[in-house]
Amino acid sequence: MGNFAANEGLSIFVILVWLGINAFLFVHFYMAFLVDKWFYTRVLLGHALSWARAPAACLNFNCMLILLPVCRNLLSFLRGTIQCCSRTAARQLDRNITFHKLVAYMIAFHTAVHIIAHLFNFEFFMDAQLNRNSSHLPFILSEIGSGDNASFLNPIRTNETNPTFVMFTTIAGVTGVAITLALILIITSSMEVIRRSYFEVFWYTHHLFVVFFIGLVFHGFGRIVRGQTAASLDTNQPKECAEQFEDWGADGSNCATPRFAGNPPMTWKWVVGPMFLYVCERLVRFYRSHQKVVITKVVMHPSKTLELQMKRKGFHMEVGQYVFIQCPSVSRLEWHPFTLTSAPEEDYFSAHIRIVGDWTQALYEGCVGDKTEPQEAWKLPKLAIDGPFGTASEDVFRYEVVMLVGAGIGVTPFASILKSVWYKRIQNNQDVFTKKIYFYWLCPETEAFEWFADLLQSLEGQMTEKGVTDFLSYNIYLTRWKDTEAAHFRVHHEAENDPITGLKQKTLYGKPNWDNEFTNIASQHPGTKVGVFLCGPPQLGKSLEKQSLSHSEGDVKFIFNKENF
Amino acid sequence: MGKIEWAMWANEQALASGLILLTGGIVGVAAQFRGWQFAAYAIAAGAFVCLLEYPRSKRAKGTSVERTGQYCFTVCVKSFGPLTRNYYVRAFLHAAICVPGGFMLATVLGCVCLGIASLIYLAAAIRGEHWEPILPKKEVTRKPTDTIKNPPQNPPPRPPPETRRKRVDDLEGAAYDNPIPVGE
């Protein structure tokens, strides 16, 4: 449990503050409806009034929050600004989607409480109208305002109706049904199974949030929640006058008939800010998507990997960032994220795209097709780029010692980092804060090595030339192999260059023993903060996180950072 | 857009609707609202829909993810044969089940949600999808006799130790062509 606080402390603090605010709002608004102004309302509804208003306040708060984590351009900007002050704070912004989901669950929970409380409210309002007994206070209260239709308390104005009908004829009811339906459709299409398999269904259905927010803003416009007016409280003190309800307004009585008015709508005050920010976010994305992107080079790598080298005016990137790519000729509405594999020092930016689905397949056919001769530049498909967006990889250079772990295609962000290292250290001879890099690449098949092996080979060559051989220590692990290949490896065990990669560093077989690796690194670098960066499957993340925490004893601290797509 | 199996989303929506119907029904009966008989019906209908929709169908393309403990439900649902396999039947069944929920405020939300699920199932049925049970694969027992040969009776013939030492000074001479082809 060595460094749990440093790794997780800020996240837990943020969650606790958020839960605390929810609890405070709930209790505060629950109590706010227990005052005299609402006395007569509570005669009709009892505590169901408070049980409906308290989650409503929490809903206002959470609906305000839910739009903020998905403004990724704003977050990217914030991240850049905070980075100079605090690395830990900047990392919190990487967990935006997790926070978005938490807030969504809270919205669903409060919606459920709110709706159930309103079921009781409707029932009680209806009861008051049906029990037409003049010596029954709820009935008397329901009759108030029958003449002028302005100062009424009970929104159900007649006994010849039913709650379902009333719901569909009030603004609050209709908007309530609409936004609840939108919420349920959004939630069912956001289930992991649907999201991972059919992203489009999730993405398009999620746009029902527009319906949700419009309905939410108009939900309170009918002013259906009614309390006694301030003026009326002067002439009718509920605590004294409630029992004398049969004498209200009679001569000699000091209790006038109470008058009621609805609360003005409040929700718009909570959500108008984030709605504006989100509109700005979409405008920024739209503007960026229309900037011209030129494909300068298309390289087809073995194992179905397509490399696109592109240029766009005014494009600046940092190491390990990612972009969203859209190809209108393939699909007008699909944007897919890809890590940038070029270094900031290069004059183009590139992405290595594995051809796995129909979109990537269509992109490949558009860029390369089946032609063997080079494509004309004007025949290449038009692309749009949104980004670049920041990830934890930007932090690599802030650590003195780093462990980079990439599994399979997850090695791509590290391609950018290693290239940048090469440019900085070797070409420009700059003094880099990072003194030692341990690089681990776990790969299930030999074919996936090629384009990255080329990069490592050139790095290796350059480092030997300059005599800087101990800066980068890389380990490639082949996690699966066939029997026939195994025979080949055994035989060439003595060869100077590795039989698979052609590198001097030999390929290792099986999975790394992380305990040993962490212990070795800890013993070689006492008193330092070691950054551990992973791009790979969650199980590997869990075990690395455990190892980081357990080896962070003494003065060596392993800080674990995970990529999240 | 990739090949979307609408039934997967219809299934999530129907399961959610079942839960909402169930909750609305429980509230209606527990608080003895007017029309609580509809709420009692909603409890039964909601529970039925949940049981029917809990086992996920096997996907036509791709890996299917089971819900925890769905195997017994799969067996039950499978036993109804074409009634549960066909999505037209499900679409009309859900449409019929949801109607009584519309008569009481507590269950109206469940009614509308189930109606939407019914429409998505109709879309799935029109596209030719159907429900397939996810059953555990029977392990194909490989016959060991094919791959494992009898262990050798005699030790392999070996040259004397001097020639067996690794010839590091002549790597080219020590290498040889692998008789078994390597790679594709």
From TrEMBL, chain A:
Keyword Ion transport recorded: yes
Catalytic activity: NADPH + 2 O2 = 2 superoxide + NADP(+) + H(+)
Membrane-topology annotation of the record: Multi-pass membrane protein
UniProt cofactor(s): FAD
Gene Ontology CC, one term: monoatomic ion channel complex
Keywords assigned by UniProt, alphabetized: Cell membrane, Electron transport, FAD, Flavoprotein, Glycoprotein, Heme, Ion channel, Ion transport, Iron, Isopeptide bond, Membrane, Metal-binding, NADP, Oxidoreductase, Phosphoprotein, Transmembrane, Transmembrane helix, Transport, Ubl conjugation, Voltage-gated channel
Domain FAD-binding FR-type: 282-395
GO terms of molecular function: metal ion binding; superoxide-generating NAD(P)H oxidase activity
GO biological process terms on file: defense response; monoatomic ion transmembrane transport; superoxide anion generation
Pfam families assigned: FAD_binding_8 (PF08022), Ferric_reduct (PF01794), NAD_binding_6 (PF08030)
Cellular localisation: Cell membrane
Entry's transmembrane regions: 12-31, 51-71, 102-120, 165-189, 201-221
Top-level taxon: Eukaryota
Entries under InterPro entries matching the protein: Cyt_b245_heavy_chain (IPR000778), FAD-bd_8 (IPR013112), FAD-bd_FR_type (IPR017927), Fe3_Rdtase_TM_dom (IPR013130), Fe_red_NAD-bd_6 (IPR013121), FNR_nucleotide-bd (IPR039261), RBOH/FRE (IPR050369), Riboflavin_synthase-like_b-brl (IPR017938)
Role, per record: Catalytic subunit of the phagocyte NADPH oxidase complex that mediates the transfer of electrons from cytosolic NADPH to O2 to produce the superoxide anion (O2(-)). In the activated complex, electrons are first transferred from NADPH to flavin adenine dinucleotide (FAD) and subsequently transferred via two heme molecules to molecular oxygen, producing superoxide through an outer-sphere reaction.
The name this protein goes by in its record: NADPH oxidase 2
Lineage start: Eukaryota, Metazoa, Chordata, Craniata, Vertebrata
From TrEMBL, chain B:
GO cellular component annotations of the record: NADPH oxidase complex
InterPro entries on file: Cyt_b558_asu
Location of the protein in the cell: Cell membrane
Disordered as annotated region, ranges: 137-184
Pfam families recorded: Cytochrom_B558a (PF05038)
Transmembrane stretches, start-end: 14-31, 38-55, 91-124
Main location: membrane
GO molecular function terms attached to this record: heme binding; metal ion binding; oxidoreductase activity
Domain of life according to the entry: Eukaryota
Compositionally biased residues, Basic and acidic residues: 137-146, 161-170
Keywords: Cell membrane, Electron transport, Heme, Iron, Membrane, Metal-binding, NADP, Oxidoreductase, Transmembrane, Transmembrane helix, Transport
PANTHER family named among the record's database cross-references: CYTOCHROME B-245 LIGHT CHAIN
Complex and partners: Component of the phagocyte NADPH oxidase core complex/cytochrome b558 complex, composed of CYBB (heavy chain (beta)) and CYBA (light chain (alpha)). Component of the phagocyte NADPH oxidase complex composed of an obligatory core heterodimer formed by the membrane proteins CYBA and CYBB and the cytosolic regulatory subunits NCF1/p47-phox, NCF2/p67-phox, NCF4/p40-phox and the small GTPase RAC1 or RAC2. Interacts with NCF1 (via SH3 domain). Interacts with SH3PXD2A. Interacts with DUOX1, DUOX2 and TPO. Interacts with NOX4; this interaction mediates superoxide generation.
Role according to the record: Subunit of NADPH oxidase complexes that is required for the NADPH oxidase activity that generates, in various cell types, superoxide from molecular oxygen utilizing NADPH as an electron donor. Subunit of the phagocyte NADPH oxidase complex that mediates the transfer of electrons from cytosolic NADPH to O2 to produce the superoxide anion (O2(-)). In the activated complex, electrons are first transferred from NADPH to flavin adenine dinucleotide (FAD) and subsequently transferred via two heme molecules to molecular oxygen, producing superoxide through an outer-sphere reaction.
Family as reported in the entry's similarity comment: Belongs to the p22phox family.
Protein name per Swiss-Prot or TrEMBL: Cytochrome b-245 light chain
Organism this protein belongs to: Zoarces viviparus
